[in-house]
Amino acid sequence: MLTACVIAAHGRHYLATTGDGKMLHCVTRGKKSDVAVGDSINATPTAKGQAVIESINERRSLLYRSDQYKSKLLAANIDQLFIVVATEPGFSDDLVSRALVAAEAAEIEVHLILNKIDMTDRLEKARERIGFYASLGYPVHEVSATALPDQTLANLMLAVRNRTSVLIGQSGMGKSSLINLLVPGADIATQEISTVLNSGKHTTTYTRMYRIDEDTAVVDSPGFQEFGLYHLTEGMLERAFREFRPYLGHCRFYNCHHLTEPGCAILDAVEKGHIAKMRHQLYRQLVHESEQKIY
Ligand SMILES: Nc1nc2c(ncn2[C@@H]2O[C@H](COP(=O)(O)OP(=O)(O)OP(=O)(O)O)[C@@H](O)[C@H]2O)c(=O)[nH]1
Ligand SMILES: [Zn+2]
């Protein structure tokens, strides 16, 4: 039996690296696909460079999304999440907050990256919007992958060093450009891996881990348009909105849902402007989603 780290996932096909740096093309038994990039797995070799995954070692963390029917693993054993947004094209506050909530629920640190600060006519507006998240206590890194590559690399390298980080972002924010700065040749490695996992079709619609040094790795995940969080329970949700925490336990009813109840400390804080309406609306939507879950 071999132990290896999963570095790319595509359907039921996985690429993993062993301690001595060998690549293994792995599959799961049956239809199972509960393995994530970043997982440490035990596998039985079947042919040269090939193996079947037998078990997954205990995870330090697991970041995932979900829809009504099932969960979609993003990455395992990661320390921090970077949400990439840009001055242009516009980003979605709904998606940013959903990613923040997912990271909080997984107890992973989370940072925001504001890319394309060279687009100065859009900068002020973007700063204002991103400033809201900074006010919640999330670190924000202002960068430009193309106009300020050296400064950007130095800034991000400090933030990712000695940790395993995952980058996510909507399409067009410049996530690939940032990954290529951090990991020179990442795009070529990605094409090679598509060849193995996807029999030649060039696609980047899979999650991929790059090792920068022994203690540093970054995970690139496909651009996304939606971020379902059906798996989070109400109890997890109220804590995942970090600005709610000081008010929890101060509602009139101990089992308050913070939706319509009289004497609700959260609703009172929204009313007074201490909690943003936008965030409470998302909380309401997510409570609704968690009730729709059918798995
Ligand atoms: N002006 C400017 N353009 C940038 C910057 N970073 C990336 N871009 C451009 O933005 C476009 C999108 O960049 P990508 O790196 O492909 O973006 P992505 O987020 O990976 O997008 P997908 O591949 O669609 O997921 C490209 O045309 C880049 O050249 C930047 O700092 N400033
Ligand atoms: Zn309440």
TrEMBL record:
The keyword Hydrolase applies. It holds the Pfam family RsgA_GTPase. Its EC number is 3.6.1.-. GTP binds at N115, K116, I117, D118, G169, Q170, S171, G172, M173, G174, K175, S176, S177. It is found in: Cytoplasm. Zn(2+) binds at C251, C256, H258, C264. Residues 76-225 form the EngC GTPase domain. It is an enzyme of class 3 (hydrolase). Keywords: Cytoplasm, GTP-binding, Hydrolase, Metal-binding, Nucleotide-binding, Ribosome biogenesis, RNA-binding, rRNA-binding, Zinc. The keyword Metal-binding applies. Its main location: cytoplasm. Its cofactor is Zn(2+). Gene3D superfamilies: Nucleic acid-binding proteins (2.40.50.140), P-loop containing nucleotide triphosphate hydrolases (3.40.50.300), Probable gtpase engc, domain 3 (1.10.40.50). Residues 67-227 form the CP-type G domain. It comes from the Bacteria. Binds 1 zinc ion per subunit. InterPro entries: G_CP_dom, NA-bd_OB-fold, P-loop_NTPase, Ribosome_biogen_GTPase_RsgA, RsgA_GTPase_dom. One of several proteins that assist in the late maturation steps of the functional core of the 30S ribosomal subunit. Helps release RbfA from mature subunits. May play a role in the assembly of ribosomal proteins into the subunit. Circularly permuted GTPase that catalyzes slow GTP hydrolysis, GTPase activity is stimulated by the 30S ribosomal subunit. PANTHER family: SMALL RIBOSOMAL SUBUNIT BIOGENESIS GTPASE RSGA, SMALL RIBOSOMAL SUBUNIT BIOGENESIS GTPASE RSGA 1, MITOCHONDRIAL-RELATED. Belongs to the TRAFAC class YlqF/YawG GTPase family. RsgA subfamily. HAMAP family: GTPase_RsgA (MF_01820). Monomer. Associates with 30S ribosomal subunit, binds 16S rRNA. This is Small ribosomal subunit biogenesis GTPase RsgA. The lineage of its organism: Bacteria, Pseudomonadati, Pseudomonadota, Betaproteobacteria, Burkholderiales. The gene is rsgA.
